[in-house]
Design goal:
Radius of gyration: 21 Å
Helix content: 40-55%
Largest sheet: 7 strands, mixed
Number of helices: 14
CATH architecture of the largest domain: 3-Layer(aba) Sandwich
Shape: globular
Distance between the termini: 54 Å
Strand content: 5-15%
Strand order of the largest sheet: 2-8-7-6-5-3-4
Number of strands: 14
């Protein structure tokens, strides 16, 4: 008897981050007082000038029609300028493919680059979508773990030890989801040089590029090591920088042959991204960074607060987040303890207990290849943030 579901799709795990967020929202809808740390999206409204541009675009008949599958030409031109400004990487419009959000950019990239059996080095902790997209197209994720003791940053020595004759690519993310880690200029340059020397593709996700704090800075690996660009795909989007998660506009940028192949594939899969959303994205990337500056100030205040409060809870240890909007504490001091009359065997157990008893939702580290840890998004209001962390502390310390 044949399987009803294909093996490629059947092996995919549900997005743990979306599952936690959905459960928290469902409990809220039932009237429960739930505080959610699960969502990976800014809690701010999309800036008004972007919304106004989209509203105007709705009235233009040309945007009611199909447009080029790879993206509006004017958006591609804007992305050339934006990438030069923000990443110091010089590209041409034909090197961009506009996608339905960052996730489609990830899937397009894996589909275009990977053959069955190709290995992809995946630093852990990782965003939950990366391993699923690799496996979907027959690739093999090779996890390389970097814990809090090394600031959640992998080393060249670790990459070298993980490389085999089947290694095709490395996924590189800085600032990191889920850890908030930011690699230094020297670390990025060393990893880029390693990739060039070993003929390894780099898939670099730069969607949190503008969310860095303190004395940390974002550097594009393609700017520090220009030689990588022949085997490099840059992933990005408007979701995080401009509070546009629901608009679904991302992009991939890379060598012409890769982008052409991915565009051909997308022409059959989805055709063009919503034209109105693309016009909004043009306005976003052309409009400067004042709004993200205001958001970053708010995130920075929350970052400092959640870092302090988590470390005040007995059994929790948290590095200070350097980028993005996530804290990634170790909860290993709570595993093995009895809390609220239940023996805690894992951070998955703990997340379930905390949601049931304290009405606080966070994503356990198992979802990110990091048992013993957890991700707390601080993209929520300060009052909810403080209340939520206080509830966790009261539960585990009583």
């Amino acid at each position: 008897m044949t399987n009803r579901i294909s093996s490629a799709v059947g092996q995919i795990a549900e997005s743990a981050t979306l599952a936690v967020d959905s459960k928290a929202k469902a409990m809220k809808a039932e009237g429960q007082d739930v505080i959610g740390f699960g969502a990976g999206e800014p809690d701010f409204a999309t800036p008004a000038h972007i919304v106004n541009a989209a509203t105007a675009a709705c009235q233009e008949t040309k945007y009611h029609r199909y447009s080029p599958a790879g993206g509006l030409p004017e958006l591609k031109e804007a992305l050339v300028t934006k990438t030069s400004r923000d990443s110091q990487v010089e590209l041409e419009p034909a090197q961009f493919l506009v996608t339905n959000g960052g996730k489609q950019a990830v899937f397009n990239t894996m589909m275009t680059l990977l053959d069955p059996g190709d290995e992809v080095i995946l630093p852990a902790p990782y965003w939950t979508t990366y391993p699923e997209s690799i496996r979907m197209f027959g690739g093999v994720p090779v996890e390389v773990f970097a814990g809090a003791d090394q600031g959640f940053r992998v080393t060249v020595e670790q990459l070298d030890a993980a490389k085999t004759d089947r290694t095709k690519a490395l996924v590189f993310v800085s600032p990191s989801n889920p850890t908030g880690a930011v690699y230094s200029e020297d670390e990025i340059a060393a990893i880029g040089a390693w990739a060039v020397d070993n003929g390894v593709w780099i898939i670099t996700d730069e969607i949190y590029e503008h969310l860095v704090y303190g004395d940390k800075s974002h550097y594009s690996i393609a700017a520090l090591v220009p030689e990588v660009m022949d085997r490099c795909v840059i992933l990005n989007g408007v979701a995080k920088t401009y509070a546009m998660t629901g608009w679904r506009v991302g992009w991939m940028a890379g060598p012409l042959d890769v982008i052409k192949a991915a565009t051909n594939m997308q022409s059959h899969a989805t055709s063009n991204v919503c034209n109105v959303a693309q016009v909004a994205a043009i306005t976003a990337v052309e409009g400067g960074l004042d709004d993200v500056g205001l958001m970053r100030e708010a995130f920075d205040e929350r970052r400092v607060t959640i870092h302090r409060m988590l470390n005040e809870i007995d059994g929790i240890s948290c590095l200070e987040p350097e980028g993005a909007f996530y804290a990634f504490p170790s909860l290993e001091g709570l595993v093995g303890r009895e809390i609220a009359g239940r023996e805690i065997q894992s951070t998955l157990d703990l997340a379930t207990l905390v949601l049931e008893e304290a009405k606080v939702a966070f994503v356990p580290g198992e979802a990110f290849g990091a048992p013993g840890y957890a991700r707390f998004s601080f993209a929520l209001g300060m009052d909810d943030l403080m209340d939520g962390v206080s509830r966790v502390g009261e539960l585990v310390n009583n």
